[in-house]
Design a protein that fits this description.
Elements lengths: L2 E4 L7 H4 E3 L4 E4 L4 H11 L5 E4 L7 H4 L1 E2 L3 E5 L4 H10 L5 E5 L6 H4 E3 L3 E4 L5 H10 L3 E4 L8 H4 E3 L4 E3 L5 H11 L3 E3 L9 H4 E3 L4 E4 L4 H10 L6 H17 L1
Parallel strand pairs: 1-15, 3-4, 6-7, 9-10, 12-13
Antiparallel strand pairs: 2-3, 5-6, 8-9, 11-12, 14-15
């Protein structure tokens, strides 16, 4: 599996309508069947795909933040939605509502399974819940002088893509904080809102239909998607085969 291009009702902002982690995937209700089938065909056998809304909105990728350990949803989330998500997600994933002024959590927090970058003005309490539920180390940061860290970068445990306006010194600083390689780039033919334009986990990524082949190759290389599961295994098998023949 590598990078898959898709669109939500002709909209390229995949990261707005879906949330992808290593243990589950949330997809907004009310899209076309095609959008769902793209996610299901790639993920069905590996992780659960859950259809839901959050606080009555379809922009679930911007409202929630999560990783393989947990999921945080804003306080406006209804009990029914919470139940729906709980029933679909693995038992090991903790789900928690958060009382936070900056309620679009996906815009103000970017995280992988180990670290989180957060908006400088995020509540102390939210920061503690974040560290506790998602089991991450939290850093207050900006990306390219922008406080909406969740919108302007995409992270996995393999690497990260930042807004093209990020300076080299910022890239290096963030890279040493996160302990993963980072590059500055774009999605959807030049869009700098990375978090809204794509979703990624450790073995696959989904981007908007407009993403160019150059952008795809940058995404593939920084998130190490070429080495993801199947091909890495075949490489190892080939290596051992060649060794046994020589």
């Amino acid at each position: 599996m590598a990078v898959v291009r898709t669109s939500f009702e002709n909209n390229n902002e995949i990261g707005v309508f879906s949330k992808l982690t290593n243990s589950y995937c949330l997809v907004a209700i009310g899209g076309s069947a095609n959008f769902y089938s793209v996610f299901e065909s790639e993920l069905q056998d590996v992780i659960p795909v859950c259809y839901t809304s959050v606080a009555g909105c379809r922009i679930i990728g911007r409202m929630t933040v999560g990783n393989r350990h947990g999921l945080l949803v804003p306080s406006g989330t209804t009990d029914q939605e919470l139940q729906q998500i709980r029933n679909s997600l693995p038992d090991s994933v903790k789900i928690q509502r958060v009382e936070e002024r900056l309620s679009a959590l996906g815009n103000v927090i970017a995280c992988n399974d180990y670290v989180a970058l957060v908006h400088p003005d995020l509540d102390r309490e939210t920061e503690e819940i974040l560290a506790d539920v998602l089991k991450v180390e939290v850093f207050r940061q900006t990306v390219a002088d922008n406080v909406l860290v969740g919108s302007y970068c995409a992270l996995s445990n393999q690497g990260g893509l930042l807004s093209p306006k990020t300076s080299v010194t910022d890239q290096e600083e963030l890279s040493s904080l996160l302990q993963v390689p980072l590059v500055a780039g774009t999605v959807n033919r030049g869009a700098d809102v990375i978090g809204a334009g794509m979703v990624v986990n450790d073995w696959c990524a989904f981007t908007g239909q407009d993403t160019t082949s150059t952008e795809l190759s940058v995404i593939e290389s920084v998130f190490k998607l070429n080495d993801a599961q199947p091909s890495a295994i075949t490489k190892e098998m080939r290596a051992s085969l060649i060794e046994s023949m020589t």
